[in-house]
Design goal:
Layout: E1 18-21, H1 31-39, H2 42-62, E2 69-80, E3 87-99, H3 104-136, E4 148-160, E5 163-173, E6 180-189, H4 198-201, H5 205-224, H6 232-237, E7 246-248, E8 252-257, E9 270-275, H7 276-279, E10 294-298, E11 304-306, E12 309-314, E13 324-330, E14 333-340, E15 342-350, E16 356-363, E17 369-375, E18 382-388, E19 390-396, E20 402-407, E21 415-422, E22 428-430, E23 435-436, E24 447-448, E25 453-457, E26 460-464, E27 469-475, E28 480-485, E29 491-495, E30 497-498, E31 507-509, E32 512-513, H8 514-517
Parallel strand pairs: 3-4
Antiparallel strand pairs: 1-2, 2-3, 4-5, 4-10, 5-6, 7-8, 8-9, 10-15, 11-12, 12-13, 13-14, 15-16, 16-17, 17-18, 19-20, 20-21, 21-22, 23-27, 24-27, 25-26, 27-28, 28-29, 30-31, 31-32
């Protein structure tokens, strides 16, 4: 089990609860694979695979220290009542895998850990569903909405030749005013695959505890002030036994305090980084800063020491929640990104060919992200790519491949994902033509055909009859959407065009508005 407050999944299983899969999410082919099947582009797929293999071999030959590749995928399940009608619970979790030459031990260790974590999560969700079934006997709610939910999200914090460090955010709602959430940090030795403790990465554990405790108390006071509980210092003093939640990133060793630990629920989780520059004397050299090629997350308004110099992204705190300027500085030179409402994430990237980059995103207002890639190889920040409606949220940063989230409004979808590589000129380049729209089991994501819908299946034109239920699984964002029949599993494509005036937000299929083809089309944002 996950043992931090807010992460304990307990309950009981009630007989008669019906479990269903997440609309094929566990076994669903990627949109790129669908494109191969539908458009018969097997040769192109083989060519793409060959190009990827060549790229990987080139990366390996250019450096003896190539970081492992980390992939994070999502799967989900749903529980219904014994009649299969009332939606009791929805749950989502992540699956983490590692690949890369000479990282076989790490790959196997992560696979074992991932299997254990996933098994515990689903077992706990089964117990939660029992509570939901019990409540369902006495509660009325919308049949199209689930009642309880639980999920796990993962974020890559650092990956290089020494360590793989992740944070896992767990959440569960089982009734009441709000759900509970909490973070768990896990760090693997990149060579042996062993899960590291603080003792494993420190040379002077006692000295570190004294210095870190003082640092953490002061940083919490500076960042959260009156929000903190009166006894927060006592909580910090007691955090060392058993092991506290921590992870490694590009800044240092970061400690996490979940809601209710040092402050109220409204304060949220608190993060305090003990920078490598301040605490290197207590640490083993392999874990001080990023080791060779790799990727490491860092925070806004924080100095990060790199081989290129002192790196920093600044965004002033706006008490009125207005717009504020975001800038990247390195060795006294500054690059202005623009004014935004909030900051997202930032990563330091060291590629196997010796180049270094900073990847970050910022949000104008309500999920209107812009993603920036800046090269810092020569000690000066240079903007290489600026992508509108693209972010790191829900994606995975890496060195050779970056998975980014794209705001994609296609037939009621909202998010899609694409793998990018950094080209010779430093620009972000798509690796596929088709954006992946990750499936979920939300009832409102299923589109029910209201009039005969023109489609293409196996290269042949056809129509879907009224009443057919489909999910959109991908799009090239240029006139083709990929779908899967919810009942038969058949896959195909839908051709569309966008309006060009006041209706530029609307899609047309065979000259007819998308809203006429379906009983209900979700609002995509």
């Amino acid at each position: 089990m996950i043992h931090k407050y807010g992460k304990i999944f307990t309950g009981f299983v009630l007989a008669g609860v019906l479990l269903t899969g997440c609309a094929g999410a566990d076994n669903e082919a990627l949109p790129g694979e669908e494109a191969t099947e539908v458009e018969n582009t097997e040769a192109e797929a083989e060519e793409s695979s060959a190009e990827e293999d060549a790229q990987e071999q080139s990366a390996e030959s250019s450096s003896g220290n190539v970081a492992p590749r980390v992939e994070i995928e999502t799967s989900c399940r749903d529980w219904y009542d014994e009649d299969g009608i009332r939606w009791l619970m929805h749950a989502e979790t992540v699956s983490i895998s590692v690949s890369g030459k000479s990282y076989e031990a790490l790959s196997e260790a992560v696979a074992r850990w991932n299997e254990e974590q996933t098994e515990e999560f689903w077992e706990s969700c089964g117990e939660f569903s029992g509570y939901a079934a019990e409540d369902a006997a006495y509660t009325e709610w919308d049949a199209d909405s689930y009642y309880y939910d639980a999920w796990r999200e993962a974020e890559l914090c650092r990956v290089d030749g020494s360590a793989l460090s992740l944070t896992i955010l767990s959440y569960a709602y089982t009734g009441g005013a709000h759900g509970n959430s909490g973070y768990t940090g896990v760090t693997f030795d990149a060579q042996s695959g062993e899960i590291l403790t603080l003792s494993d990465i420190l040379t002077d554990e006692d000295g570190f505890r004294v210095a870190a405790q003082r640092w953490i108390v002061e940083k919490l006071a500076a960042d959260h002030g009156d929000e903190l509980f009166e006894d927060y210092e006592e909580t910090v003093a007691a955090m060392w036994e058993p092991e506290p939640d921590w992870y490694l990133d590009a800044e240092g060793i970061t400690f996490v305090f979940d809601p209710y630990e040092v402050g109220p629920y409204a304060m949220g989780a608190a993060f305090v980084s003990c920078p490598y520059a301040e605490f290197a004397a207590y640490m083993k050299a392999d874990y001080v800063g990023m080791n060779g090629t790799g990727a490491g997350r860092f925070s806004v308004n924080t100095d990060v020491e790199t081989e290129a110099g002192t790196l920093r992204i600044d965004m002033p705190v706006d008490e009125d929640y207005g717009m504020a300027p975001v800038s990247l500085s390195l060795n006294g030179e500054s690059l202005e990104a623009g004014e935004f409402g909030s900051f997202g994430d930032a990563y330091l990237l060291r590629l196997s060919d010796g180049r270094s980059f900073v990847l970050f995103d910022a949000d104008y207002a309500s999920d209107d992200y812009v993603c920036f890639l800046c090269e810092i190889t020569d000690g000066s920040p240079v903007l290489r790519s600026r992508l509108e409606d693209v972010s790191l949220q829900g994606g995975t940063a890496g060195t050779e491949v970056l998975t980014l989230r794209v705001h994609l409004d296609v037939l009621g979808t909202y998010y899609a994902y694409m793998d990018y590589v950094i080209g010779e000129s430093g620009e972000l380049m798509q690796t596929e033509d088709v954006f992946e729209i990750r499936s979920d089991s939300y009832a409102w994501r299923v589109l029910t055909v209201a009039r005969e819908l023109p489609v293409t299946v196996d290269g042949q034109a056809g129509v879907l009859p009224v009443g057919t239920r489909i999910r959109i699984t991908g799009s090239d964002n240029a006139g083709t959407a990929y779908y899967r029949d919810e009942d038969s599993g058949e896959k195909g494509t839908i051709s569309y065009v966008r309006g060009d005036g006041e209706d530029a937000w609307e899609l047309y299929i065979n000259g007819v508005s998308e809203y006429e083809y379906f009983e209900m089309l979700p609002y995509a944002g």
